[in-house]
Amino acid sequence: MSDLIAGIDLGTTNSEIAAFAGGQVRVLGPGDTRMLPSCVGFSPAGELLVGEAARNQQALYPERTVRSIKRKMGSEEKVRVGSKDFLPQEISALILRELAEWAHRALGERPQRAVITVPAYFSDPQRNATREAGALAGLEVVRILNEPTAASLAYGYGDGSPHTVLIYDLGGGTFDVSVVTVEGDITEVLASHGNNHLGGDDFDDLLTERLAAEFEKQHGVDVRQGHPAAKARLWWAAEEAKKKLSFEPYVKVREEALLTRLFRPLHLEVEISRDEYEGMIRPLVESTLDSVSKALQDSGKKPGDMDAILLVGGSTRTPLVSSLLIENIGLEPRQDVHPDLAVALGAGVMASRLAGRAVERVLVDVSPYSFGVSYLGDRGGYPYPHCYKPIIRRNTPLPLTRTEQYMTSHPYQTEVDVHVYQGDDEDALKNILVGDFRVEGLTAMEDANEILCRMRLDLDGILEVAAVEKRTGKSKQIRIANALRAKSAEEIAAGREQIQELYETRGEMVGDAWETAEDLEEEVVDGGAQVVEMPAPVRADGDAEIESLLERSHWLLAKMHAEDREEAIDLHEKIDTAAASGDVAALKEASGALKELLFFVEGQN
Ligand code: AMP
């Protein structure tokens, strides 16, 4: 028999399959996410749909689609999908079959044996139903593995020494927290708590409500009443917005022609800030902390006894989750293994070990350093221009993009000096200066002007830092090559000198600082600086669609590859010229080309 054993996370919202391939444990599957939505359905034509296609039709044809079947595992309750009735394990078997097919396509061999994970609280009938689902899918289930155990294996805590870890797992529809001791392959779940009906879906519901209320306010129509297709679009838009808000301080939701009235399309356009969103979800996230306290209490452990907090589940990308955990437990949670793949990877580690391979942990590409910018803040009651907070935190998987918001510190301030540092110290001057640039030509205004600082770090160690003036979209950017390389003694010495110069401004109010809150383009490649300025977005007066296209484009400029950016700027100029001269055909052509380019760029990001 082949020695291939697959590790499977059969999840409530998504499922994944991992196996040993190319010298390491990998999650296998098509696309970037390699996640199969745990959804099964029949199309109107009666075709069986598993995964993305079933999920896409769920809002429109709920009676022909089933999701979250995991909640029913172990019960005899049949679910009706279209005109057929299924046991929960039969639906799960369809999901497992699809995953086995993914592995087959990736490895050229279909797995016959598998390790499947289940929540620590699963009862015997639930575990047996999971085994049966495997058997129905043609898989011998060699081990049923507790999810927290899988997560601790993925994070490398199965190295042989004893560890006590807290595993916080917030997925799409369920929340679990477990206190676990691990020693080699022996793992004991000391205590486990959670809420079977709490997860990212609830965050989507709250945002959908907010979007529907906004649409009703703008147009007087309630999409919640009798408009299933529009409501489904809002739900999608809400989930997308939610995901962006994990990395951006604001999100703009635009749904064109959500409904039509008297042949007129009704659009939804609204901006939501992370602050507002966090206000909405805070009570839900806080309720998870009660479970954390209970699990600690039941395990007889104190927060100080924990070697680590491990984050598992897609919803743990929500920054409020980490910040509340730090506040309450005083330990920074680890999220260096992709939170939604950690369980599958851990199952893959166990499966590989059972197949006789010495696998210690999974390999992931993470940023070994934190990066951020300095700002004018308060230290010891005095204004201090070199305050620092990381924007990119070390041990975060790559590639990544993060944005933070800063404000100009003086009325009519039109320039900001941006100093980019590598390090974690609250005093920027104790970190390593890796680049700086000046943003000029900001709008002179009496009130504080909002500037967004966006950092993007890729697997090749290229760090791009962009500052964007939010109100105009004007931006400036630097690109730092080799950001992940350890600095040489000379570089550190040179950086120290620069720091010394900056140090001399200690305590002074500097005119070009910003406070915690970017549109010009500068490239610094290994020290050489090249400046390219981006124009502020053009206003093609009267054409809302083109205006919104231009604005979207401005938001994306910083993320584009150099050639795309050049093309986008060229198209901006063409649109501007065509709008100014009233040349409708040229306007149409240039905006059509820009739309296509953005479609392409958005697909890449
Ligand atoms: P899981 O069950 O672990 O696959 O988690 C799925 C949940 O994670 C869904 O509710 C997703 O919307 C959510 N999710 C995925 N990515 C993000 C993100 N970047 N920020 C917040 N939630 C996310």
Summarize the structure.
With 605 residues, this protein is α+β, with helices and mostly antiparallel strands.
What do these coordinates show?
- Helix content is 34%, strand content 30%.
- The protein is an alpha+beta fold.
- It has 4 domains: 1-155 and 339-364, Nucleotidyltransferase, domain 5; 158-335, ATPase, substrate binding domain, subdomain 4 (Actin, Chain A, domain 4); 365-534, Substrate Binding Domain Of DNAk, Chain A, domain 1; 536-605.
- Strands 1, 2, 3, 4, 10 and 11 form a 6-stranded mixed β-sheet that branches. A 5-stranded antiparallel β-sheet has the order 25-24-23-20-26, with no helix packed on it.
- A hairpin with a 4-residue loop joins strand 12 (163-170) and strand 13.
- Helix 2 crosses helix 3, helix 5 crosses helix 6 (228-245) and helix 11 (544-557) packs across helix 13.
- The two termini are 42 Å apart.
- The model is unreliable at 507-511 and 517-542 (pLDDT under 50).
- Adenosine monophosphate binds at residues 11, 13-14, 171-172, 199-201, 239, 242-243, 246, 313-315, 317-318, 340.
Descriptors for this entry?
Actin, Chain A, domain 4; alpha+beta; 13 helices; five-stranded antiparallel β-sheet; Nucleotidyltransferase, domain 5; 34% helix; 605 residues; six-stranded mixed β-sheet
